[in-house]
Design brief:
- The structure is a single chain.
- Helix content is about 5%, strand content about 45%.
- The chain is mainly beta.
- The two termini are about 15 Å apart.
- The structure holds thymidine-5'-diphosphate.
- Thymidine-5'-diphosphate binds next to strand 4 and strand 5.
Length: about 140
C-alpha cells in the first residue's frame, strides 16, 4: 500500500437542536469489516503512540474528542494529518508506518481495525519496515 491510499473521509453527521450524532456501520462508511475497536486516552503531554506498521491490518482512526497528529509513512513519502473532528476519520492502509503524537488534553482516539489483535502483525522497527517494503525481508 502507499500513501495515496490513505485518506480523510467524512462520516454522516446528524445535527439538530439537541446536538450532533455520527455513526459507522460494518462495511458501510468504512472500507472493511470491523474485527476490533480500541481507544487511546489519558495520554500524558508530550507522549507519542504507535511507531509501527501492520502487515495486513487496515485501520480507521477518529478523534472522538480533542486533537492529535497522525504521521504516516509508506517508505517513500510521509505526511502528517491533524485529526480534530469526531465526524471525520483517517483511513490507514496496511503496511503504512504510523506514529501518533501531539495529543491535546482529554483527547480520545478511537481506532477501528480490520483484524483482531495479533502481535505478529506488528512491524515496530522502521528500518525493518523499509527492508520489507523494498522486498529485502519478509
Ligand atoms: P500498542 O499497539 O503497541 O500501542 P500503541 O501503538 O498505541 O503505542 O499496544 C500497547 C499494548 O497493548 C501492547 O502490549 C499490546 C496491547 N494491545 C492489546 O492487547 N490489544 C489491542 O487491541 C491493542 C491495540 C494493544
Amino acid at each position: 500500500m502507499n500513501l495515496r491510499d490513505a485518506s480523510i473521509i467524512e462520516l454522516p453527521k446528524i445535527q439538530d437542536h439537541r446536538g450532533n450524532l455520527s455513526f459507522l456501520e460494518n462495511s458501510n462508511q468504512i472500507p472493511f469489516e470491523i474485527a476490533r475497536v480500541y481507544w487511546i486516552y489519558d495520554v500524558p503531554g508530550g507522549e507519542s503512540r504507535g511507531s509501527h506498521a501492520f502487515y495486513q491490518t487496515d485501520e480507521v482512526i477518529i478523534a472522538l474528542s480533542g486533537s492529535f497528529d497522525v504521521w504516516l509513512d509508506d517508505g517513500k513519502e510521509n505526511r502528517v494529518y491533524t485529526l480534530n473532528r469526531s465526524y471525520k476519520y483517517l483511513f490507514v492502509p496496511r503496511m503504512t508506518y504510523r506514529k501518533i503524537d501531539n495529543f491535546s488534553t482529554n483527547s480520545l482516539a478511537l481506532v477501528v481495525a480490520s483484524k483482531v489483535f495479533d502481535p505478529k502483525e506488528y512491524i515496530r522497527d522502521y528500518d525493518r519496515f523499509l527492508r520489507i517494503k523494498n522486498g529485502k525481508e519478509q
